[in-house]
Amino acid sequence: MSDYVLELKAITKEFPGVKALDNVHFNLKAGEIHALMGENGAGKSTFIKVITGVHLPNKGDVYLNGEKVVFHNPKEATKVGIAAIYQHVTNYPDLSVTENIFMGHEKIKKSTRKIQWKEMHADAKALLESLGSDLNPKTEMGSLSVAKQQIVEIAKALSANAKIIIMDEPTAALTHRESEELYKITERLRDEGVAIIFISHRFEDMYRLADRVTVLRDSQYIGTWDVDGISNDKLVVAMVGREIKQLFPEKQVLIDEELLRVEKLGQAGMFKDISFTLHKGEILGITGLVGAGRSELCQALFGIEPYDEGAVYFEGEKVTIKTPADAVNLGIGYLPEDRQTQSLILQWSISQNITLSSLDKISHKGWLNNQEERKMSKTLAEQVGVKTNSIFNLASSLSGGNQQKVAVAKLLTKDLKVLIFDEPTKGVDIGARSSIYQIMIDLASEGYGIIMISSEMPEVIGLSDRIAVMCEGRITRFLDKDQATQEAILEAAMSKQTSKSQVV
Amino acid sequence: MMESNLIRYVSKFRELGLLGFIIILAIVIQFLNPAFLTLGNLSDMLKNTAILCILALGMMLVLVTRGIDLSIGATLALSGMITALTVSAYPGLSPFLAILLGIIVGSACGVILGLLVSKVGILPIIASLGLMNAFRGMTFWVGGGDWVSAYQMPDSFKGIATSNILGINTLVFIAIIIFLFFYYFVNNTITGRQIYALGSNPDSAKISGINANKVYMLVYTLMGGLSGLAGVLWVSKFASSQGDTASGYELTVIAACILGGVSINGGVGKVIGVLLGAFLLGVLDNGLPLINVSPFWQMGIEGVIILVAVLFNTEIKKKVEKNNRLRRVI
Amino acid sequence: MSTRTINNVQNFSWKRFMLQWEWMLIALIIIIFIVNSSISPYFLNFTSISDATMTFLDKAFIVFPMVMIMIMREIDISVGSTVALASVVMATTFNAGLPMELAIVVCLLVGALCGFFNGFLLVKYRELSAVIVTLSTMILYRGIAYMILEDQSSGGFPSWFSYFGWGYIGPIPFILLLFVILAIGFALLLHKTVFGRQVYAIGSNTTASRFSGVKVDRIKLIVFTLAGVMAAITAIFLTARMGSTRPNVANMYELDVIAMVALGGISTAGGKGKMLGAILAVFVIGYLQYGLGLINIPAQMLLIVIGVLLIASVTVTNLRVKGKFKTSSKSDSKEKVS
């Protein structure tokens, strides 16, 4: 018998054009919570998919209890007791909780192959109760909150007799209280002998739960440490690859007159009482946990989902923003969080993507002018430094970082004054990251006011002139550049309102 | 709060609402013309609705997988035509074999569509549109452009629609059997649930090890088989088969499903709901002429009801979502 | 910032030029012409061709907006009913004493209204699919047509009205002339204007378009209204050629039109296809029909040919798309089987 329930040796996984995993090692003991850390795009997700049989590695071996195994599909991995709870909830919203729990291993009567609903409902209820939840198993999955769906996913893993459970950023969309509950459940599972791989880029999660931590960076294995045996700074260096300071260009602070003022902005169920100001040349960081209402706030400012209460002043004048077109006409631009679905048209050329939001500039009386389109997109693509040889290449041919540059170039076609960047470096590799930071700083020094939403602590601290921390729909604290530390931000992001009013 | 509870109630018990609407409609019609709720008229109505029910049940599964099948009217016509030609050539053929023949022809049509959707990856709406044309053309072709009319069909064949089994009209009996089969299949078998799982979230279904292509093949073949069956019943009932039999009927079937609460976005659809949806159309078809509504107004009234049902549904759904959001605490 | 220069001159590529679906359709038309003329010596004769063209062009007007609708990843199956309703209202208002000129205007208005209503529902209820909305209005519009005319037919139009059906301008049928003018107009609108570019953007990625400030709702409204107007134009030509109208005219036109558009290489997955392809597809199907008529094959047989042609063409385009976008497997067509 091996010491390890699961061991991966020298795993390499290649996709056309990219090495998603390069010689990665990993091992897992029974009854252990093992944190897997790394920045977005470090290869964590691919790594899990190798363990769960979604991807077959190109090189390397997987050992289960010392024996070599090969999973050709997810079902084979499930059979031997490996279950995964994915970051994006991957359940069946239209089906009941019970069905979600038992999907793939339903209880049936042997003779008639009839599904045994009564037994399944009862088992589901018992399982949920063992996890401290009083959910009705007949409820439709899609009507539950994300936190409750996570619990159902865990129940699903347990019902499949999982001995190894992989949790992929399970706390990402949870509130502080909900995370706390999840921690407890996770610890209970560990005490019962289940081995858990916990993926997160929140240090909080790791310190609270994990026994050991393995770090991946740029698709490579960096190392494994006991959590007690590694300092915070060392871990950051392991994840980021260099001191944070090197990554962020120096910014000349030249905070100028007021551009945007928001007073008591609110949207039912999403955010409330939001007030802040933004000046010319300033970068205002907005951070907080996912689900704190940051993206919703900025989408309201951009007119995608209009706000219900409060007021917005642009250059001192009160304005109403109901559609993205309103926002753009005022001079507010938005770089969406998900560039593949919200920002770019992947099957279009770089050129067409760049000009999409300002077709009026390359047309006369509605007729497109190809010459001007080429000229404009060439200029802007060069300005943001897209690595490509022709503006006619498809956006889908670019790497994540270069796609993001194209998305930024789109914003520059307009006469904007305020730019909202929603998670600008999500899924962008380190190299392209610093050039996006450079672009943002250059834009600020040209006089743009920039609002940057980000969950990446280092970039919030490294770039922002001021930081607004949100928690459960409210701004809990403003921090100036010199006050900003990881601890201060985390504390504000986890703090709860003392006087909580019902919004109904 | 009162209102939000009501909304949740309505959204949960959609079928009850539909049933209530049918009952109110029936009472109104009965009030205006007492001939409505008589045994003779009701059995007439059931007979007329049976074929629609059979087809709507099959269509429900197709819609649940996020698909659509526009070819069923043509499949129905083709299998009806082939069966009618066969029984007119071999009058001694047992009605049971005639039905079987229709089902086989229909299933073959369904298999072709299933292959196009699952293996070739053509969007169901386009694939079934193409096949609709092809099957319709083939119906004219095998029929030589002529009708097969009542005098060419043996009495045993025409008897399918008029005979009784256990005191119930055969058409209705078959519809009941199929309804029971679907009820069991959809709720109590793994395959049945996989259809819903696939429609609810195709990506997760892959991870759960559900063979999507197999499910697509199954639902389209089933749909084809039911259309074939319906074709035989149709031809027997109307005692004629022609090139344009049931032309455009696929849209009535889809309308019954939509009325019954089947979502075109997949994953949602109840057997009872579909049955009630078909019933509602049946009651309208049967009842409106009884209360002297011109038959020419029927289509318009149906259109209004379908549109209102669709919009009502969406409004309810929107309200539920908004309520869920409002209940969140900030 | 970076000083790298990026090329912005697109070289002409023969491969790309020849790999267009439209060549396939042109080849089909040529084959049909060759076969037709070898079967019947009367085919390659100017009058017979222009006569043939007149008979299949009426529904082709709806093809123009349908191309845009399908590029936007929507569909409109109510257009056949809109033709019927517009035609019935035109005939009824005329017979109620309205001058024919005004009746034609009413017809256009009814068409526009029907289309606008579809668009309005779709924009107001974004979560509703176009299949459901236009299926409902398909039943509704034809239902209203039946309410108005019941099983009667209505006609008795002034003689000049038949000009729409049978008139010539010089040697060219009026309908063909109008078709060509509108075809050029719509092709320019789709391929050369901001509006057209935005139509493609909506079909390729609606969210990204909205986030880029494209007025998605307004464009959808306009295009669906255009579909109604074109259906009304079809109604005018159809009614003029038949001399009278009934509520059941233009039955299943929507499916014929969708088939033409799909054969023209416009994918229902959205964002792809050209106006020219659909226009060529109109002629492929039209001349095919005419040719089959020449050799006394019943018109219904054409259905088989159209069906097979449609499926074959979609299969071929599918394979082409798969080959082209190997890298972006995530947004593959499979996901959109809906």
UniProtKB/TrEMBL annotation, chain A:
Membrane topology reported for the UniProt record: Peripheral membrane protein
InterPro entries: AAA+_ATPase, ABC_carbohydrate_import_ATPase, ABC_transporter-like_ATP-bd, ABC_transporter-like_CS, P-loop_NTPase
Compartments where located: Cell membrane
Top-level lineage group: Bacteria
Chief subcellular location: membrane
All residue ranges annotated as the ABC transporter domain in the record: 6-243, 254-497
GO MF assignments: ATP binding; ATP hydrolysis activity
A GO CC annotation given for this chain: plasma membrane
SUPFAM superfamilies listed in its UniProt record: P-loop containing nucleoside triphosphate hydrolases
UniProt keyword list: ATP-binding, Cell membrane, Membrane, Nucleotide-binding, Repeat, Sugar transport, Translocase, Transport
PANTHER family: CARBOHYDRATE TRANSPORT ATP-BINDING PROTEIN MG119-RELATED, D-ALLOSE IMPORT ATP-BINDING PROTEIN ALSA-RELATED
Protein name per its UniProtKB record: Sugar ABC transporter ATP-binding protein
Organism of this sequence: Gracilibacillus oryzae
TrEMBL record, chain C:
Sequence intervals crossing the membrane: 21-44, 56-72, 79-96, 102-123, 130-149, 169-190, 219-240, 276-295, 301-321
InterPro entries: ABC_transp_permease
Highest taxon of the lineage: Bacteria
GO molecular function: transmembrane transporter activity
Localization per record: Cell membrane
Keywords: Cell inner membrane, Cell membrane, Membrane, Transmembrane, Transmembrane helix, Transport
Annotated membrane topology: Multi-pass membrane protein
GO cellular component: plasma membrane
PANTHER family linked: ABC TRANSPORTER PERMEASE PROTEIN YPHD-RELATED-RELATED (PTHR32196), AUTOINDUCER 2 IMPORT SYSTEM PERMEASE PROTEIN LSRD (PTHR32196:SF71)
Full protein name: Autoinducer 2 import system permease protein LsrD
Organism of this sequence: Gracilibacillus oryzae
Organism lineage: Bacteria, Bacillati, Bacillota, Bacilli, Bacillales
